[in-house]
Amino acid sequence: MSMEEQDQSALETLLKSGEFLYHLNLDRKTADLVFDRRTLKALYELMSKNSVDFVDFPISSGKESVVFKAFLKNGKAVVIKIYKLSTLRFANIWKYIDGDYRFARERINRSNVVYIWAKKEYTNLALLQKHKIPAPKPMVFHKNLLMMSYVGTQAKPAPMLKDVVADFDKLYRQVLTDMVMLYQKAKIVHADMSEYNLLYHRGKAYFVDLGQAVSREHPAADYFLERDVKNLARFFRNKGVDCDYESMLKVIVGKKPPE
User: Is the full-model pTM beyond 0.70?
Assistant: First the structure.
């Protein structure tokens, strides 16, 4: 038996025994809701290769993914996002991949589309990092997992923008500036922008959930951008900010200078 086969055999034994779940601080009921065997195997591989000491509590949970806080062996907090193989539906995400030239050479089918989705979010977050747009820093992706930097305090993760009391006039100016950078410099459209996908940390809004973000050359990019801007305009108006959708859109696409 080769070394690789021995490693795989040992991993299978570990997964079957439940010992790995114990080290993850997860019980069987919780694990069954989130993980299948392929995901557990991928998580074990990611943890082993990237010095992850243990996985802590879930930060957020949705129909298509769960986000966990985790800790590296040096004590640094990180985030591991797990895309659910069982519920991330091909039809729901194909429209965000098909037409994005950056992934045109990928061989995409129903069995690997979730892996492409993880790579896509990593790629989009890397663009935000490059252009200094506030967002989690992508660290590594592996199969249906994405590890990135943790946004929050030692006590708790950063809250969604919808749940905070803050200077919304200041936040509006920051978010609008970053939307300009997103469109004109990073050359992508978030495609699911709202107060639910902005975190608030140390007086600043952070962009999250970038899996569906598309190149601005995508056939539906204009539609996605208009939907994003309408969502932001509605939220900030409800918070008392003097703003309107049409002016915001013109500023973002470069047809009007910011006020």
Answer: yes
